[in-house]
Amino acid sequence: MKPEHLPLLKSVSAPAVHPDGTRAVVSVTRPDFDGDAYVGQLWSVPQDPERPARRLTRGFRDTAPAFSPDGRVLAFVRSAPGGKPQLYVVEAAGGEPQVLTDRPLGVSSFAWSPDSQRLVFGSRQPDDGRYGTVDGVGAGGEDARLITSFKYRMNGVGYLQDQPLQLFVLDVPDLGDEPRVQPAGRALKDSQDSHDAGHDAAAKGLPDARQLTSAATDHTGESFSSDGRWVYFVAALHEKSDEDLAAGIYRVAAGGGEPVPVQASNAGPQTVLAARESRDGKWLFFTAQDLGVSGLDFVAKNTVLHVMPAAGGEARALSDAENMDVDAPGGLIALRGKDAALVLNNAQGTVELLEFSATGSHALLVHGDRVVTGAGAAEDSLFISFTDAATAGDVACLNQGQLRLLTDFSAALRTEAGIIEPQALVVPSSDGHEVHGWVLAPPGKGPHPVLLNIHGGPFSQYTVALFDEAQVYAEAGYAVVMCNPRGSAGYGQTHGRAIKERMGTVDMQDVLTFLDGALEKFAALDAGALGIMGGSYGGYLTAWTISQDHRFRAAIVERGFLDPVSFTGSSDIGWFFGGEYTGTLPEQVAAQSPMATITQVRTPTLVIHSEDDLRCPVEQGQRYFTALKQQGVDSAFLVFPGEDHELSRSGTPHHRRQRFEHILAWWARHLPTASDRAGQHPAVGT
Question: b/e map of 340-374 (b: 16 or more CB within 10 Å)?
C-alpha cells in the first residue's frame, strides 16, 4: 500500500438490520482525492449470501442508517459537498430520499421512536451572532468570549458553551404525500412576514423540530423509552459539573418538559457513556466508568455495562470491571430480544462482541483475530461489521455460531495495493511481564530498517485490524514493530494503570524489550538501522525514549504530549489529564516530562503537529522543536493548517497523503531503503 492508495480504504458503519432480519444496511465511506473529502453511500446487504450487496443511495456522503421499527422507512444522515450533515428518510423499499432538517451546524445523531412516527436528533445550537447566524459576521468578527469554566473547548468542535449539543424531536411525514410546493410571490412575502422557526421549516417543506433540551452543555446518546413517552440522554447537569468528569442519565418527556435524572440508588461518581432501555421496558442498560471519590480518577478505568430497573433502584454490573472494557470505538449499546444488550469489548489486540441479558447471563458471540466495529440484531438474525488483517471493513452474519462473510469491500485494496500480514509476537519484559504485539516485515531477505511505532492513548491498543500506516511503511521497505505496553487498554485495569504517576518507566521498558525481542526473532530486521515514531501519547513516549536511549538513527514525534506544565492550560483536557497521569508535584511532573530531559536528545527528529489541535495543542510541538533547534539537533517542524488531533485518521485526504509523503521523505533521508530513497519525494524536499 502506498499513499496514493488511500481511496481504497473503505470504512463500514455499524449495520442497521431490517426488523424482519433478512437484510442490513451499512454506510461505506472512503477518502476521495478529487473532492478532498470523505464520500460514501448506503449499501443493502442481504443475509442470503447468494444475493450480492448493492448500492442503495447515491449521495455525496450518506451515513448512519437506521430502519424504523415497523420496517417501512430508512433514516440516515446526508452531507452535500461543503455542507452540513442533515437528516433524511427514504422508503425502505426504495425511492427518492426526503430531507427533514436544515440545521445550521448539522445533525450529529438520531434515534427512532418505537411507533415509527417520530425521530429525536442531536444538533449543535449556535448562539445568535455566532457561527454564521448573522450575515457578514465571520469568526473573526464575533463578539469576545468571557471564559469562566474549565470545560470550554473540545478538539474537533472548538468552543462549546455557545454551540451546545441540544436534542430535538420531529414528526416523520408520510412519505407518500405530495411534495410541498415552495411559496413564491405573495405567499413568499406572507411567509417572510410571519418569521419564526416553525414557519421557516414549513416554508422549506420541512417538519417542525421541537427543542427538548436547553442547558448550555452537550446532551448525547439520545434514545426513546420502549413506550415512546420519554427520551433518554446523557449529560453533566449536576451541581459543580465543571469540577469533575461525571456525567449521568436523564430523561425528558417526548412532548417536552424538564429533564429528570435517572440515577441508580447505589451509584458513586461515574461518567456514563451510553444508556438504552430494554425492548420490554423493564430494564435500563448503561455503560459507565468509575471515577473514584474525586470524580476525576479516569486513568485506565475500564468501561462497564450495568443494568438497573427502568423504574429506578440499584444498578448491577454485568461485565467484569477489571478484565472487560466495553468501550471499544463505536461501541454503543445495541438491543437484542426483549431484555438483552450487545456490546463490544477490547480484548488483547482484538475487539469482541458480547451479549448480556438483564438477568446476568452473558455469551461471547464473536471473537478471534478481528475487530468488531458494530452489531445489529432482529428476529433470529445478527449482523456485524468488522475489520481484520485483510479488510478495512466488511459485513458478516452470525449463523449457528459461525460467521458468514457477506461483503468484500476491500477486494480492490488487496489486488491493487497489496496487504502485508502482521505476525503476532509475545516477548517477556525484564520483570517477567509479557508484552504483546506485531511485526510487519517487507518481502525479501533483508536486512530491513526497522520502525518502532508507539500508539496513542495511552489507554488504547494496537489491534489485529488492517492499519494503513503500518502497511504504507512496510511497502516502502521498513519492518514495522508495534506493541501494547503497560498503560494500554485491552489487558485489564491493572495493566492500564501501571503507568499512573509513572509515565516513561515500565511503558518504555516494554516497548524497548519488545523491539529487542523482534530483532532477535526475525533475522531480516536490521538492528543497526532503527527509527522510532508515535503520535499523541506515542509522541510523548517517543520523545521520552530518545532522551534516554540513543540507538535510533531518527525519530518522528507527532501531536505529542510533550510538556505537562504548559499542557495544563493549553489543552482541552489539560485541567485534569496531566495531574491524573503524572501527579501534580513539580518534581514528580519533571521526572516524567520530555521537555525536562530534552537536553539529552541528540536523535534527528521530525516534529509533526496540526494548527487546530486542541487536545495536544500546537504549542507543544513548537516548544519542543525550538528547544531541539537551539541545542543543534537536526530537526524539522511539519505543521498542517485546518487540521486537529485526528489528522492521521480523519484529516482531509490531501493532507493525509501529504503527511505520508513527508514521513517517507524523512525516513528516506535517515533510513533509506531500496523502495524509499532520498530524492524520491521531490514535492516534499529535504
Answer: bbbbbbbbbbbbbbbbbbbeeebeebbeeebbbbb
